[in-house]
Design a protein that fits this description.
The complex is a heterodimer of chains A (341) and B (737).
Chain A: H1 2-22, E1 26-31, H2 35-49, E2 52-57, H3 60-69, E3 78-80, H4 84-92, E4 96-97, H5 109-117, E5 123-135, H6 136-141, E6 162-165, H7 171-184, H8 186-199, E7 200-204, H9 209-215, E8 221-225, H10 226-235, E9 239-242, E10 250-258, H11 264-274, H12 277-281, E11 291-292, H13 316-320, H14 322-336
Parallel strand pairs in A: 1-2, 1-3, 6-7, 6-8
Antiparallel strand pairs in A: 3-10, 4-10, 5-8, 5-9, 5-10, 5-11
Chain B: H1 2-7, H2 12-26, H3 55-60, H4 70-80, H5 88-111, E1 112-113, E2 116-117, H6 120-126, H7 138-157, H8 165-190, H9 203-210, H10 213-216, H11 228-256, H12 262-270, H13 279-288, H14 293-302, H15 313-338, H16 341-349, H17 354-365, H18 367-383, H19 386-391, H20 398-407, H21 413-438, H22 460-488, E3 490-492, E4 496-499, H23 502-508, E5 511-513, E6 516-518, H24 524-554, H25 560-572, H26 575-586, H27 597-620, H28 625-633, H29 638-649, H30 651-667, H31 672-675, H32 683-692, H33 696-721
Antiparallel strand pairs in B: 1-2, 3-4, 5-6
Classes of the chains: A alpha/beta (341), B mainly alpha (737).
Chain lengths: 341, 737
């Protein structure tokens, strides 16, 4: 009886081993960039390695919420794209795994410092500077001068013409808030936000909504990441992009491996591949105007020229931490959002 | 008739469930198997491989020994075979086996999970388990159902609800699935409201989040901004009222006027319900936004400055009214048709004027319909997420706040849970207000007695304004839809108006190749998935909904109110909360279904079931109970009565439930966004991805295609289900005098 059971056990094991070998490697890929970019990354990685990729695209906030909800039994392997804050948050909460890629020496310093500030649980894959864009037709129709700086946006003539997202709901708007703190200091920064508040016609929920509204002629000036504004202009909408004269903050789009990933080896393969110049060059094919983190990767001609933009030394560690975030958001809620417009 | 049944000692239903239990335990894989229906597992080591083994084989190999006690529940009912139903032992045996089996399944399912013991106390008591288990599979599912229905048969044998096995089993079944797929996930989510930052529980956290000024502030009375809760409430009441009135108007025009283009009107009123989210909002922006064609036209003609008036309450109100009037219409049409003409004729014979008849007879008899229509409009508005997102401006409502509390920069699940509770409180309040208004009156108008009257037309004083409003609203809807179609055939909506079909080509191109058609368009994958999921979910939703409605209107049992509350709950909760709570609850054993198509189907069933319930209740409260009673007296059992008498009279309700659940499954977004996976992507989440990426043309082309597909499906369903034939004279001439 025992030998029979052993035989059965052995044969099942053999069958299992055989099917295991026959089964193709696979990777569950959570993507928070734009749809066509995600699609291209998934297909290209599949072509390059033969690993089956199952890709799901959701915004970075949605993906974060999902990874958190799934943390007891993780379903995803790697999370690529989307603004850095949720990746940092995930690292802080231990939802993502530490990994040091051999590709690191090919990256820009800002990408590596992003990794170091999160205990190597995330890494920068692209960056984009904050700025704003305006609808040239509407500006002309209202007889307004072209704004060139942050301070311009607080001038009374732009009343009801500026739109930004609500920092409570959008990472882009939180970056704006944090940028003002670092650019002007906390007191002056909040003074700026208050003055800006009286010109704002709507705090949108989603980060890129202000510039989309501007593209459709529903709004004049939208405070967004400059690559989002460029995308509107390239799509054919009458939008002009502005790099504010005082200097500006930026985001670092990030990538993390999910803690407890079922396909850890494949996730690491993807991680290394996504940091390579050839993978990052794929952005050019899908009109993504961010600046890639690999020094050897090409940047689109239409992308905002980072060398001509005055970038502040953005402190991701401080402003990405949940304590600072909660404090600033509460202050903004209590002191800015309640003011009459 | 009962004595006949109880005399028999062979019980076919009992035998069926005993066999089912044994099949589940001895033949089917106990744990979840990926790609079950490819049946590859049959040749892949079944029945010994622990991944695919049935419970009996697992225990036989010394694995998962904690499953063994369930066997007791399978053996006990064997002793009941051959006994009479009236014997006390029969009932006792079945109740015992059902309770032991079902209870044990739940106990072991929750205490032993993917990392061994789920609770620290269990580890402390029994030591490390050194083993683990995954989500339940078909074996466990069927076995659990067998235990459940053995239990209900036992209870029936004891004489509860006249010993009616069908009714008791239906109640038991609905309670279990509603508990599993509504209460359980929602409870899991709502506990987040009490969790402090360091992971402990505290009521103080809840209080501080609940009594927030941003939620309850009354600033708008003094020129400032009101709290989110008041915003939502005000909007929902408005939408509920307007949609009910408009729905009634359309129902009256279709059933009680000489209006010629009823079919066209019917189609037009159904259009908004089959429109994917965002599309109506985008069309309204193009018409009335700052640069919208209507706004610009008026600004030019009257020389005024265009404004952003659309963004805020007006925009959401218009969009929601457009979107939810059809729901009110669907509920009301059945009720308006069902009002007995005999009563109206009786009133006329007694010399009441047409207006008096309408006001004192017809309208009061429509009360259940009006109340249900208002309730649905109210709840839909509360839970709506797409329209406020696009058109909300600075008018914040609960549903969007909940979404961004979860996915926004705050990551505050506790806040989301508190907001969800407030929302739930409002919807339940509306629910009870509706019950209070209906009271205990009888609205029965369809009885077994012959009723061959014909509906009188509306009084003239009423019909003129009603027709006018219907025409204006229909015209408005038509313009909005013309805009949408136009948007799908221009290069770039609002900027470059050259006509093109390229969006359709990108989305839906296909090539004929050797061996069949190659679906090369970008949208096909999500399109087929959506169609498949919706087609599976719709009939299941209708079945569950109507059975529930039958139990609620036709049976009385202890805890009926709580039962009704439970079935309405999932509808009252915004999709976002459902989405996240489903991930929290169903990502781990015993029910592990995230990333599958099943979770989508299940979420649709329980989200849309309340509409089936409401429509069913509204129609059923019009059917006289004497119909059932005469059927029962003639020897039919309650299942036969349900199938032969009630079901055929319920065709409008069935159609409403089927149509509604099908189209909602194809157009829902907020819950789906968390539940889609790589393999099961849905059309709406794909469309939103395109909107985010500026591909308005493609998004709208896809939406337009969906609209046409759903129109076709709805028409086909209408054909298959058919119309209720309530014996009424077909001649309209007499009342036209």
């Amino acid at each position: 009886m025992t030998s029979l059971k052993k035989m059965i056990g052995a044969s099942t094991f053999a069958v299992m081993a055989a099917t295991g070998a026959a089964q193709a490697d696979k990777l569950t890929f959570y993507c928070s960039a734009q749809e066509d970019w995600c699609q291209l990354m998934a297909n290209s990685f599949q072509d390059a390695t033969g690993i089956d990729v199952a890709m799901t695209r959701k915004s970075s906030g949605e993906t974060f919420a999902q990874i958190k909800a799934e943390s007891a039994n993780p379903k995803g392997d790697v999370w690529w794209g989307g603004t850095g804050d949720p990746h940092l948050q995930a690292a802080e909460e231990g939802l993502t795994a530490e990994y040091i890629s051999p590709m690191r020496d090919q990256l820009h310093p800002w990408a590596i410092s992003q990794a170091e500030s999160a205990g190597n649980k995330t890494i920068g894959i692209y960056s984009g500077a904050l700025g704003y864009g305006f609808n040239t037709d509407l500006l002309a129709a209202n007889g307004l001068p072209e704004p060139t700086s942050w301070a311009d946006l607080t001038k009374p003539e732009y009343k009801g013409h500026v739109q930004m997202a609500n920092p409570n709901s959008s990472g882009t708007a939180y970056t704006t808030l944090a940028t003002m703190m670092q650019l002007f200091g906390e007191d002056e920064g909040f003074k700026f936000m208050k003055k800006l508040h009286s010109n704002v016609n709507q705090y949108t929920k989603s980060g890129s909504a202000p510039i989309k509204a501007a593209g459709r002629g529903e709004n004049t000036i939208g405070i967004v990441f400059m690559h989002d504004a460029v995308k509107q202009a390239v799509s054919g909408f009458p939008v002009k992009v502005v790099a504010p004269a005082e200097g500006t903050g930026y985001e670092i789009g990030s990538m993390s491996i999910i803690d407890g990933a079922r396909n850890m080896e494949e996730a690491k393969k993807f991680y290394d591949w996504a940091l390579s110049a050839e993978a990052q060059n794929l952005a050019l094919e899908v009109n993504a105007f961010q600046v890639p983190s690999n020094k050897g990767a090409k940047t689109s001609q239409s992308a905002p020229d980072m060398s001509s933009i005055k970038l502040i030394d953005y402190d991701f560690k401080t402003y990405g931490s949940s304590d600072t975030r909660k404090r600033l958001l509460k202050k903004w809620d209590d002191e800015v959002s309640v003011l009459p417009q | 008739m009962r004595p006949l049944v109880s005399e028999r000692t062979a019980h076919p239903v009992l035998i069926f469930w005993i066999i089912a239990g044994w099949v589940g335990f001895f033949l089917l894989p106990w744990y979840g198997v990926e790609d079950f229906f490819t049946f590859e597992w049959l040749i892949d080591g079944y029945p010994f491989d622990t991944d695919y083994a049935p419970a009996a084989f697992l225990i036989g190999q010394g694995e998962k020994l904690w499953l063994a006690p369930a066997l007791l529940g399978l053996l006990l009912p064997l002793l009941a075979l051959g006994r009479r139903r009236t014997e006390p032992l029969y009932a006792k045996l079945l109740i015992l086996s059902g309770t032991v089996g079902f209870g044990w399944m739940i106990l072991q399912g929750f205490t032993i999970g993917i990392r061994g013991w789920n609770f620290d106390w269990a580890r402390a008591m029994f030591g490390d388990l050194g083993d683990r288990q995954f989500g339940m599979g078909y074996g466990a599912l069927i076995c659990a159902s067998a235990f459940l229905f053995l239990l209900t048969q036992g209870i029936a044998a004891r004489g509860a609800i006249n010993g009616d096995v069908f009714v008791l089993s239906a109640i038991g079944g609905v309670i279990v699935i509603v508990t599993a797929f509504v209460f359980f996930p929602i409870a899991k989510m709502l506990t987040a409201a009490f969790i402090t930052e360091d992971g402990g529980y505290s009521a103080g956290v809840f209080a501080s989040k609940f009594f927030d000024d941003r939620l309850w502030g009354l600033g708008c009375l003094s020129g400032g901004r009101c709290g989110v809760a008041w915003n939502s409430l005000f909007l929902a009441v408005l939408v509920g009222l307007i949609t009910t009135v408009l729905g009634l108007i359309f129902a009256l025009v279709v059933t009680r006027s000489g209006f010629r283009f009823k079919k066209g009107l019917r189609a037009l009123t159904v259009l908004p319900i089959i429109t994917p989210p965002f599309v109506i909002g985008l069309a309204l922006i193009l018409l009335f936004g700052l640069s919208g064609s209507v706004t610009v036209f008026f600004a030019d003609v009257f020389g005024v400055q265009p404004t952003r008036w659309l963004y805020g309450l007006p925009g959401i109100l218009i969009a929601q009214t457009l979107a939810f009037t059809p729901i009110a219409f669907l509920v009301l049409i059945g009720v308006v048709e069902g009002v007995s003409p005999s009563m109206e004729e009786a009133a006329q014979t007694l010399r009441a004027s047409k207006w008096q008849v309408f006001k004192t007879v017809s309208l009061p008899l429509m009360r259940p319909g009006l109340a249900n229509a208002f309730l649905l409009g109210f709840i839909e508005s509360m839970a709506d997420f797409g329209n406020p997102l696009v058109l909300g401006g600075n008018y914040d409502v609960l549903s969007t706040e909940i979404f961004f509390a979860i996915v926004g920069a705050q990551y505050d699940q506790g806040k989301a849970a508190v907001l969800a509770m407030v929302l739930l409180f409002f919807t339940l309040g509306a629910f009870y207000a509706q019950r209070f208004w209906l009271g205990k009156k009888s609205y029965t108008t369809v009885s077994g007695k012959g009723d061959s009257g014909v509906h009188p037309h509306m009084p003239r004083a009423l019909s003129l304004p009603v027709l006018a409003i219907a025409m204006i609203w229909a015209g408005f809807t038509a313009v909005v839809y013309a805009m949408i179609f136009y948007g799908s055939v221009v290069e770039l909506w609002g900027v470059n108006n050259n006509l093109t079909f390229k969006h359709y080509v990108t989305a839906f191109s296909f090539r004929l190749e050797e061996g069949g058609i190659r679906w090369s368009g970008a949208a096909w994958d999500s399109f087929w998935t959506t169609l498949k999921i919706a087609a599976i979910a719709a009939p299941l939703t209708a079945i569950v909904g109507l059975i529930t409605a039958y139990l609620l209107t036709r049976q009385s049992f202890a805890g009926k109110n709580a039962f009704e509350f439970g079935t309405m709950l999932s509808f009252a909760i915004p999709g976002t909360v459902i989405g996240v709570s489903y991930i929290l609850a169903f990502n781990v054993p015993p029910i592990e279904i995230t990333g599958t198509g099943i979770i989508l189907v299940v979420s649709f069933i329980f989200r849309n079931m309340p509409v089936g319930v409401r429509a069913g209740i509204a129609s059923m409260s019009q059917l006289d109970k004497s119909l059932d009673e005469s059927s029962l007296t003639l020897g039919a059992n309650s299942w036969q009565t349900f199938r032969r008498i009630i079901l055929p009279l319920l065709r409008p309700a069935i159609l409403a439930a089927l149509v509604y659940s099908f189209v909602r499954a194809m157009t829902a977004i907020s819950a789906v966004i968390f539940l889609v996976s790589a393999e099961y992507d849905m059309a709406t989440s794909y469309i939103i991805g395109r909107v985010e990426n500026n591909d308005y043309g493609l998004a709208i082309a896809y939406s337009t295609t969906l609209i046409f597909v759903m129109l076709t499906v709805v028409a086909v369903m209408q054909l298959i289900v058919g119309r209720t034939e309530i014996g009424r004279r077909m001649t309209q001439s007499r009342t036209n005098v």
